Amino acid sequence: MTTDSPPRNAHVILVVDDALDSLRMLCEALAAEGYVVLAARDAEEALQRFALTVPDGVLLDAVMPGMDGFTLCRQLKATPPWAHVPVVFMTGLSDTEQIVEGFAAGGVDYVVKPLRIPEVLARLATHVRNARATRQAQEAVDVAGLGVVVLDGQDRVAWRSPQASRWLQEAFPQEPATAWLAQARQQGQQALELADGRQLLARHMGAGGLGESMLLLSHAAPQARASRTLQQVALTPRETEVLSWLSKGKTNRDIADILGMSPRTVNKHLEHIFEKLGVETRTAAAAVAGQLLQADTP
Question: 35, 131, 241, 278 - which has most CB atoms within 10 Å?
């Protein structure tokens, strides 16, 4: 017997329900829509599925034997690598208190049993699509040499980009970074001196979702290096020109047009400049450039 392979970019959905008939019906409906479906009969099995692969969305029964759906959802949201996954509750309870508890636990939506499959599919598709788009946008910030942290309403880390995870682990190897991040959220920004002389900066960027706040992380150049001159840094004349235009807020394409070179060549110059300055981001390079260029002005 042969089976069709799922599309490479197919969304993975985890269905958690202790009712076998409901579980089977949902799995069949989701598979027919092109989803890759995982199933769990209780919270323990659901956590085992998460340990193997992180799904794109969860349909979660609110009331189950043992750990209920609300507790499971809170545990998922308290685990940074899993916190971004949207959870849609399935419940036979129409009581407002139960619905509120679902949202408080971190759920993004709910559907009432007996389930109306078209409604379930429509709601799930919307939340999965939005969650993936949001995460891709957040992770794209890493490419620019920055990091993103999302805090929930209680100042817990709801999600963080890979770059942010690395920086926070380096800066806080023995203790959680939550208190420092919470201060950045409250005060607008925070700076932490690192062992190598650089600073880890956190800047509050505003609301990132219901009750959530987004922080942007970056590195600032060591203060000791900021007092050097261009001659000491040993930039070539061309690199000095590129750095000068960078400090004036010009994009790579702008610099390429001004200096008559290709954007690829500008990128190569910037790689060498970042290495010589000991920085990782355009923002840090521009900050150092202002001081270096000023120091070289007679």
Answer: 35
Instruction: Give CA separation, 3 vs 6, 26, 37, 53, in Å.
Output: 9, 20, 14, 21
Nearest to 212 by CA among 202, 220, 200, 204: 204
**Nearest Cα to Cα of residue 66 among 101, 41, 91:** 41
Structure tokens at 112: 């009432």
Q: What's the whole-model pTM score?
A: 0.52
Q: Cα separation of 54 and 37, whole Å?
A: 12
Angle at 64 between CA 58 and CA 69, to 5 degrees: 40
Query: Is the sign of the CA dihedral 42, 47, 48, 50 positive or negative?
Result: positive
Q: Which two tokens stand for residue 246?
A: 């960078």
Each residue's pLDDT tens digit, 134-190 = 776 666 665 566 788 888 778 888 778 888 888 999 999 888 899 999 999 888 888
Other CB atoms closer than 10 Å to residue 164's CB: what's the count? 27
Pull the structure tokens for residue 24.
Answer: 């089977």
> Beta strand pairing status for 109-112 and 87-91?
parallel
Relative to beta strand 57-61, strand 12-16 is parallel
pLDDT at position 232 over 80: no
Q: How far is CA 106 from CA 72, 99, 167, 180, 204, in A?
A: 10, 11, 26, 23, 22
Structure confidence at residue 55 as a pLDDT band (50, 70, 90): very high
Domains of the chain by range and CATH?
12-137 (3.40.50.2300), 144-220 (3.30.450.20), 224-295 (1.10.10.10)
